[in-house]
Amino acid sequence: MNGMSTPAIEILGLTKDYPVGFWRKRLRRSLDNLSLQVEEGEVFGFLGPNGAGKTTTLKLLMGLIFPTSGTARIRGRSIDDVSMPEQPYFYDYLTAREFLDYYARFHRYGSGERRARVDRSLERVGLTQAANVQLRKFSKGMLQRVGIAQAIQHEPQVIFLDEPMSGLDPVGRREVRDIILELRRQGRTVFFSTHILSDAEMLCDRVAVLHEGKLQGVGAPGEIMSLDLQGMEILFELHDGRGLPASLAGRATQTGGRFRTEVPDGELYAVLGLLHDCDARILSVSPVRPTLEDYFLHLVKGGSNSTYAVEVNLR
User: Fold this and answer.
1) What is the value of pTM for the model shown?
2) DSSP code string of 249-266
3) 161 bridge partner residues
4) pLDDT tens digits, 72-111
5) How far apart are CA 6 and CA 205, in angstroms?
6) Which of 206, 215, 190, 315 minimizes the C-alpha distance to 15?
């Protein structure tokens, strides 16, 4: 990333309060002084449990609601000066082609340009064969792809997606992941919220963790997962009739004919020696490190004052 270039997204102290209660209204803070930057061409994951403030942030960035304080810029333009479409409403009696043509008309394209853009968008999301099928017959994964096609058909440089994998089966999630990876290859910036951590690990250049409206940490998934070595995992097989060494009984789990055990780093060579003495076949030895899910759950349970959050220091 070129640190001297204008960030694709720059969030500066965004705060949002909502009034709650019927008779005596009080304010509930949904987003608390959020500041972060997303660079051009990044796939940036915005992580947090339900109610963390992810959707509020996206609505603020798209100008659908207004902040209590703070601001943001998208490619150098204030969110007060950026016009963006709301999440599409799916008119289920329309075909995919008719739906995309309807939204293309908002950009005042001529009929030939609309047709070309609709065809190109359908091809990008893998829906060319279903172009003339009514949306009411689409699966949720196909509807997600139609929504993404609508979002990218005018070739935006920054794409916002709110929980794009939510509720999808494994095939649907794979389809949406492939689309995000293709957008990255095109050099576009993708900012998406999710609570599906495996997708964030697979797709994102960087992630931010939000909890109770507050930013807990920002960093590359690989940086987060490479912090603390938790031990070494050994996968091995025993020859017929051979038993586990007594010191490993209760520490190894068996799946089929294979055993798996996790040992502290300092005990690795001693345990390998024991397995060698009983003529075990070592299949793999690999480090055990925190996953993004471990990091996320620790922050959520421990809060921003946890020693782990301070130690990571990814803000």
Assistant:
1) 0.72
2) TTTEEEETTEEEEEE-GG
3) 192
4) 999 988 888 755 554 556 778 999 999 999 988 888 888 9
5) 18
6) 215
